[in-house]
Amino acid sequence: MKKGFEYLFCIAALFLGACANIVTPSGGQKDITPPIVLKTTPYNFSKNFAGNSIKIGFNEYVKLTDMANQVMVSPFMKEMPEIKIKGKSIVVNFSDTLKPDNTYSISFGKSISDITENNVLRGYRYFFSTGNTIDSLYLKGIVRNAFTLKPENSVLVMLYNNLEDSVPYKEKPFYIAKTDDTGAFYFSNLKKGRYKIFSLKDANNNFIYDQPSEKIAFIDSLITPIPIDTAKADSLKKQTIYCLNLFEEAPSKQKLLKSYSEKYGKLVLIFRKPVENLILEPLNKNMPSSWNIKEENKTKDSITIWLKNPEIDTLFLKVTDNNEILDTSKITLIKKSIVTKTGKGRGEDLRYISFILNASKNSTFGFYKPLLIDCLSPISDYSFNKIILTENKDTIKPIFFFTDSIHRVIRSDYKWKENANYSLFIPPVALKNMFGIANDTLKVDFKTNSLKDYGNLKLKIIAKELNCNLIVQLLTENNAVVNQKIIISNDKGKVQFDYILPGNYKLKVICDENKNNIWDTGNYLKKFVPEKVFYNTSIINVKANWDLDFDWVLE
User: Fold this and answer.
1) Domain covering 2-246 in this structure, CATH number
2) Contact, 269 vs 331, CB < 8 A?
3) pLDDT tens, position by position, 108-161
4) What long-range pairs does 404-408 form, CB within 8 A, spacing at least 24?
5) 490 or 518: whose pLDDT is higher?
6) Helix (H, G, I), strand (E, B) or coil at 69
7) From CA 223, how far away is CA 179, in angstroms rounded?
C-alpha cells in the first residue's frame, strides 16, 4: 500500500513539472542537481500521525526562501507551523491542533534549494494522515485572467466544505493551493465530499475576500474530487481540468477618486464607476446656472469641466451623483499663462487655439478616413467657409461639421482620391473658443495612399452554442485593438475588416450577453461570471492588395 501512494506521489510530481536552468560551465562542471530527499521522519504518506514535528533529511545543506508565498499547508491551519533548517534537514514544528482523520499535505513550492548553486527542488510535497487511511481524491485546474485569458501566477485556490454562498467572505478555506507560473493548480489526497471552489488574489494575506479590489474567480456548482487510478500513468492527463476565470467585480459604491485643474479653464473629475446623474455645486462663489460645459469620456467615469468663468483662484465644489453627496472638493485653478510675443514664458501658450489633426505630412493619410481636427477646447464662434482645402493644387469645398455637442472636434467626410496631395489652410480668427481665444494660421500638407496598400479580412465565425452578440476585435501582435465589429446573435457570423495595413494580426471575440457592446465583469453573490472571451491563437498575416478568407470555430 505504501508503494502505491509513493507511485501516486510520483505521478503528481510529473503533473506539476520541473525545469532546470541550463548554464554554460565555467571553471569545471557546475552542479545543476537539486537537493535530494534521503529520509523523512516519519516517512512520507505515514498514517496515524500523532506527533508535533516532521524532519526531512537531504543529501546536502539546503536553504529556505520566500516561504510566505511558496509553502502551503492543507487542510488550512490557523497557525502556520514553524519551519527551520537544522543541519542538512528541514524541521517542521506544529503548534496548531491537527484535525482528526484528515490527510495533510505540505507543499514547499520553490522554497527549497541548495546553498552552493541555488538549485531549486521544485514541487516537493510531504503527506501524512491523522487517521488510519490516506485520503486519495484529487482535482486540478487552471486560473487565468477573465479578459486576457493569460495565466494567473501565485493566486490562491480554495476549497470549502461549508457550502454557504457567503463563506469566502467570512471563513478560511478547508483545503488550499496556489497557482504556479502557468496558472495551474493541483489538489491531491482530498477527503471524499462536495466542495465549493473559489480563487482569490489575496491583497492582505488573510485568506478572506474582504476587499472590493481583490480579484476572484468561482464556479457556480459544487466540485466533487475524483480518485486517481494508480495503475494508469496517464490517469491525471485524462481527468477534468477546471478553468477559473479571474476578475475584479464592478464597484458597487460610487466615489470621486480625483479632482484637479489640468490647465486654464479645464477641470477633470475621475470617478470609481460611470456617473449616472452628476450635479456640481460651487460653494465659495455664486455662479450662473450655466457656469460650465461638461464633457464625458466613453465610459462616463472621467468628466471634463470647462469653466465659463475661470478667473478665480480656488473652487470649492460639492459633487453629487445619483442624489448621493460624494465629496466637497477644493480645486486650485490654473491661471492664464504669461507668455511673451516670442512664445517664451511661464506655462502653456494661450495666445492661440491649439489643434491636433489626424493627418500629417510625415505619414500617408488613409484615403477612406474622415479628416478630424481636435480643437482641444470648446469652440464658440466659427466660420467654416474660411477653411481652404486644395486637392492637387485645385481648391475643393468639403463639408465640415462638429462631431460633438460641445463643439470641440471638427470632421469632414470628403471622399479623398487615392495617391493625391492635399493642403489644409485655416486662416487666423476662423475659429474662436469659449475663452475668446482665436486660432493662428494653420497649414498642413498631407498625401493619401491607395487601395492596393491595404489588405482585407473576410471572417466567418461559427459559434453554435452561444446565444449572444459577438464583439469581434482585430488585434495587433501586442493586443492593441485595430478595429472592432459587432455580429448580432441571429446573423450568420460573417464580418469583414477592410483597409488593413500589411502585417501580423490576432483575433478576439467577446460574447456580449447583455448586448451593451462592452465586456462585462462578474459578480459573485449574483452568480454572474464574466462574459466569455475567446482568442484565436493563429497569427493572421495580412498582405497588401490581397483578400484573406478565415474561418474560426469558437470552442
Assistant:
1) 2.60.40.1220
2) no
3) 999 999 999 999 999 899 999 999 999 999 999 999 999 999 999 999 999 999
4) 404/295, 406/293, 406/294, 406/295, 406/306, 406/378, 407/375, 407/378, 407/379, 407/380, 407/382, 408/295, 408/374, 408/375, 408/376, 408/377, 408/378, 408/379
5) 518
6) helix
7) 18
Diameter of the chain measured on Cα atoms: 96
d(CA 409, CA 378): 8
Query: Which whole-number Å values give the CA distances from 455 to 265, 419, 459, 497, 503, in the listed order?
Result: 45, 17, 13, 9, 9
pLDDT score, position 489 = 75
Task: Check: pTM over 0.85? Answer yes or no.
Answer: no
Q: Is it true that domain 352-451 has CATH number 2.60.40.3710?
A: yes
Q: What angle do CA 193, 194, 196 make, to 5 degrees?
A: 140
Of the candidates 425, 440, 441, the one whose C-alpha atom is nearest the C-alpha of residue 388 is: 425
Region 454-553: CATH code: 2.60.40.10
Q: Which three cell numbers stand for residue 8?
A: 501516486
pLDDT at 336: 79
Asked if residues 160 and 150 have their Cβ atoms less than 8 Å apart, the reply is: no
**In this structure, what C-alpha cell is assigned to residue 48?**
496515524
Residues in a beta bridge with 332: 314
Is 371 a residue whose pLDDT tops 90? yes
pLDDT tens track for 130-142: 999 999 999 999 9
Q: What is the pLDDT of residues 212-256, one digit of tens each?
A: 899 999 999 999 998 876 545 455 555 678 999 999 999 989 999
| Secondary structure string (H, E, C) spanning 424-471 | EEECCCCEEECCCCECCCEEEEEEECCHHHCEEEEEEEECCCCCCEEE
Going from the C-alpha of 358 to that of each of 298, 363, 392, 412, 446, the distances in angstroms are 19, 10, 19, 12, 10
Distance CA 248, CA 241 (A): 23
